Fold this sequence. Notes:
With 121 residues, the protein is an alpha+beta fold. It is built from 2 helices and 5 strands; from the N terminus they run αβββαββ.
Amino acid sequence: MADHNDLGKLGEDLAAKHMLNAGYKILDRNWIYQKKELDIVATDGKCLVVVEVKSRSTDYFEHPADAITLSKIKFLCRATQGYVDMKDIEMEVRFDVISVIKRNGKFEIEHIEDAFIAPVD
């Protein structure tokens, strides 16, 4: 497996652990719908929380959360709609981003709640 894939997997594992420690219930990880993947799907008891995890070995060039473009947001929204429809979810949906950045040999986790809203097409 390529180093960036290893980092991505580790980042998702750290993000999931962070969420569990914060009281979230994880429903699915790496859920795929029509070639669209949701990294983490969880609930906080009130909302369905869809989390995009971005892992980087450095934030020298850009913060990981800045890598989420409008096309990525639309992609996540379509996959989330598929999830909600398939699982018959009747909760408000919130989109979060968790950035995992390696600094000085340690991983720092930043959890951004309500990172974006679904665009109106």
